[in-house]
Each structure stands twice: as structure tokens, then as C-alpha cells.
Amino acid sequence: MTNLTSSPGTEALPVVKETKSAGRKPEAKREVKAFTGLAHIALFAWALVTAGPLIWVLLASFKSNTEIFLGKPFALPEHFSLDTYFDAWGEAHIGRYFLNSVIVVLISTAGTMLFGSMAAYVLARYKFFGNRFIYYLFVSGLAFPTFMALAPLFYILKNMGLLGTYTGLVLVYIAYSLPFTVFFLAAFFKTLPYEIEEAATVDGASHTRKFFQIMMPMAKSGLVSITIFNIVGQWNQYLLPVVIMTGPGAESKYLLTQGIANISTSAGYHAEWSTLFAALTLSILPMIVVYAIFQRQIQAGLTAGAVK
Amino acid sequence: MSVVERPATRHAAPPPARPTAKKRKSDKTPWLLAIPALVLLAGLLGYPLIRMVILSFQNMRLRELFSGRTPPWVGFDNYTRVLSDGVFWAVTGRTVAFTIVSVLISVLLGLAIALLMRRVTRGVRLFMVVAMMFVWALPQLVAAQIFRWMTDSDFGVVNYLLDKIPGVDYANHSWFVNPWQGWAVITTLVVWAGIPFLAITLNAGLTQVPKELLEAATMDGATPWQSLRNIILPILKPLVTIVTTLSVIWNFGLFTQAWVLRDGHPEPSFQTLTTYSYTQAFGQSRYSLGSAIAVITVILMLGVMVFYIRQMFKIGEVE
């Protein structure tokens, strides 16, 4: 994450030479000890507020319908069983929607990263006519809220026959993720050293090869940060699939967020609310996986300044 | 994809702006690399925006949508209709007020938490980051569902907990009868969901503040407040500008939260510009009116934000 953010700030800072300067000074630690105690308490309280709702959902997802309405929200469920999860996965079709979402997000994140990093590399590293203009085009995409283009987007996809298809959805996801991706990656590529690239040019590497074999590995930490950001952002989408995944037979192609919305809107007080909570819990699972995969990079990025 | 190579020694750089930068303009590969992104952006973001502006000058109804005929041109009719509508201005005022309040609270809290995180041990910090990752990773829709349930008048946890306080009767209290309370819930949700991104980003930015600088300041007798104001904040300023700008853009476009908390039918007092535009366009099939509202929204936002967005552009161009 450091890289995601450090790059725009580098302008003002001597970051490059700063790596081993942050040695621990005991006297500085002592002065803030009293404050540190308070800080821990404040953070603990805040962690409770942050995690509280999540814990509540997790508890409710194991309870039966009647238990949820008993009025003891923080009581442990009477017996742990995964029945609600099986209900959600099978009967409410959450399983299918879940896989739909995974596929769409995998493809569109991969596409976003590929196209976004290529464009960012070119914009950051090459001077050519129209460079600034294109860069501003990308960044101004950042300033437009999603909903602004919804009506015409619907219309365009309809004309192209892409309404209610994953192709359409993936392309739209990529297009909507590009401005942010290009904005941050361009700033990031600019901070990378030029010498290695020059050496590669001397040795006769093509532009394409330089990009994939030299720049990409060097930019790894920045790429990881933005990848996580895009996975999270695209997994969270609700409005776009609602607009795009319509039409005959669209129900089987719903994404997870749509499926969840479906459970809660089609159901009144008599319905299986526990199923909803199980579905809600399931929707967080992939993010745990993503976190586990990228854990080392995230930690390295986040603690870099403190530990080095 | 291999291209005929030109040795680096040949870079006859046109303007010597940056001596290390390579300038090979005669080559087409750079363009090729950027083209897929450009095509997608132009086709799915640029073109819809232009269509939307065009649409706002027409009168598109269901009939034209299905028949595919060009809707009649109506000039500025949609705009005059929207701008002379009191409801629109009420919605605008509400959206602006919500944006200011929610962004202020989130950025201040996010900064406070980021600063606190610098003070705690590595283990605690890691725990914080993990907890925040989960909240950040929660789809807006899911977060909104959770809050809808927590504030449910009959079975919500919030009423349950408030009712435990002696002398407070919150059993069966409905949070959305009074717009102020309803907006408090929505703001809490947005702030709760928004803080992780802000805190994680700002915390990462804080790792870039040179420690010697802070130590030197402390030696010279600077209070923590002085170090914050004169050292940390100036260094953090570009980052704060970026995250504030992004938060304004995101919160101004508030949709899902209000939509879900009001069950897909926001009452007039819970409409924001986004939901208003959406209900006009898709709910009432007044596509052109909805487009006009959206265009006005963006113009309003860009008008207010122009300074910050320019700032953000500049920061992005690390030279």
C-alpha cells in the first residue's frame, strides 16, 4: 500500500535515500508512552465499532430464523450448523451468483491491470504528441461519478447486443476501473529508475519486452496495490450489474450483490433471514482469500517505513 | 510484436526537459500499448458521456427507446424544467450538505486513526489493518444491508443496545421517520465504510514522514500539535488532497447506501442527486430529464472541485 500512496507524494520527499534512516531512538519512545496507552484504548474502541457489525452478522448467519428474532443479538447460536449456508448456496442460488462474480471479477481485474499498466507505462515514460491530453482524459474519467453514464451505457450496450452478457459487463468494469488505475500507475512508473530501462534498450530489448520483463517486475508492489484496489472495487459493484444484467434469462447470470439484494427484497418478515446473513458472510470470503494471497506484499508495504 | 531497435545513444531529445527521459517518437509501439485502454475508455466512458449530454437535449421516452427512433429535439427544455423545480434544489442542497459533513468526518477520523496507528506496536497495527481490510472489502450493498438490519425498528441491534441504557426507551424506534436521524444512520454507514481506505492510505503516507525531522522538532521543544501542523501535515498535504477529492467524488455520488436503507424506494427526504436522477430516468422512464439532472450534477461538482481536481492532476504528474 505504501507504493500506492507514496508515489504521488514523492515530489516533496527524499524517499529514495530514506530507507535505513528510521532507526529506533529510545528517548523518543519514552516521551510518548502515556499517549501510547491512550492510543491503544482509542484504537481498541474503534476496532470494536469497526468489527462489531461484522461479528453480529457472523453470529446471525449461524442462527435459525426464530433465533434471530428472539431479541438477543449477541447471544451465541444454540447449535452451530452450516445449514443456513447450504440453504443460501443451493436454494437461494448464491452458489451460482458467487461463481459468476468470481469469474467476472477475475477476468475484468486481469484486463484492467494489463491494459491499465500498458497505458500508464506509455503515458509515464514516453514523450509523444498528445501525451498530456490523453493523460488528462484518463484522469478526468476519475472525476465523473459512475451513475452519470448509466442511461446511455444501457442504450449503447443494448445496441451492441451486449446487454445481459458477461462480455459487456467485463468491458464496462474495465473501462470504469481504468482512470484510477492509470492515474496511480502512471505516477508510480515515473518514480522508477530509468537506468535499467536504458541498459535494456542498449542491449536491444524491444519496447514490449522492456515493459513485460523489466518494468512490470520493478513495479510489482505498485501493481499489487492497485490489483487489490480493483478486485475490491469490482467485487463491490452493484449498480452496474443491476443496469447491465437485465433482459430475458438474466436471473441465472446475476452477480453476488444482485443475488443478495434479491434475497432481501423478495422476502418479507416470513422469509429465511438467516439465509441472507449466510450470504452476506459468504460475500466477504473471497476478500479473505485475496488478503491471504497478497498478505506478504500488503504487510511489507504497510510496515516498510516503520520496520526498516 | 518485436520492433526494429534503435540504440539508446541516438535519442535526439527534442526539448531537453528531462535529460534521463527517453524520447523515441518515431516508434509506434508506445501507442499500441495504450490503444486497448484508450478504446475501452472512449467507447464505454467517453461515448456514453457524450450520448448523455445529447440525450439531455432531446425528449427520450419509453416509446423512442423501444422503437429506436430519434427522439425529438427539445433544446434546453429539460434544463429549464429541472432548474426551475424546487425539488431539484432541495435535493441538491441535501446532497451538498451530506457530502461536506461526511467527507469532513471521514477525513478527520481517518487522519486521526492513521496518526494513532503510528503510535502503537506493530502487532496492534497489523490487527487494525486486517480489521479495516475487511470493512473496506465489504461490498457497499452488503454494508448497507447490515446497517439496515442493525437499525431495524423491531429487531435491530441498535435499538436493543440503546434500550439497555436506563431511562431510554428505544424499543421499536424507527430511525427513518425523522430525516435527521435517517441521515445520521446513512452518514454513519458511509463514514464507517469510508474510513478504512482513508486510514490505510494516510497511514502509508505517514511512513514517508522522515523520523529525524520529528525527533529534531521534539528536541527543539515542539509540542506534538506543532509537529503535526508544521511537519506532518505539509508533507501529507498532497495525499490528503487526493483522498479528500476522491471522497468528495464518491460521497457526492452516494447511491447504494441510501437506496438499500430505504428499500429501493427512497422517500423525497432521502433522495440525493444520484437517486433522483436514477428514479427520474429509470423509474419514471424520463431518460432525458434524468440525463439533464446528471449533467447538471457533474457540472456543479466540477465547478466546486475544479481547484482540487487541478491540484490532483498536478500531484499525479510527478516530474
From TrEMBL, chain A:
Compartments where found: Cell membrane
Entry membrane topology: Multi-pass membrane protein
PANTHER family: ABC TRANSPORTER PERMEASE PROTEIN MG189-RELATED, ABC TRANSPORTER PERMEASE PROTEIN MG189-RELATED-RELATED
Xref: SUPFAM superfamilies: MetI-like (SSF161098)
PROSITE patterns associated with the record: ABC_TM1
Keywords: Cell membrane, Membrane, Transmembrane, Transmembrane helix, Transport
Annotated ranges, domain ABC transmembrane type-1: 98-294
Transferase in keyword set: no
Family recorded in the similarity comment: Belongs to the binding-protein-dependent transport system permease family.
Spans through the membrane: 34-59, 97-123, 135-157, 169-190, 273-294
Protein name, entry field: Sugar ABC transporter permease
Pfam families reported for this sequence: BPD_transp_1 (PF00528)
Automatic annotation (TrEMBL), chain B:
All residue ranges annotated as the ABC transmembrane type-1 domain in the record: 92-308
UniProt KW keywords: Cell membrane, Membrane, Transmembrane, Transmembrane helix, Transport
SUPFAM superfamilies recorded: MetI-like
CDD domains recorded: TM_PBP2
Primary location: membrane
Keyword Membrane tagged: yes
Region (Disordered): 1-25
Record's bilayer topology term: Multi-pass membrane protein
Protein name, as recorded: Sugar ABC transporter permease
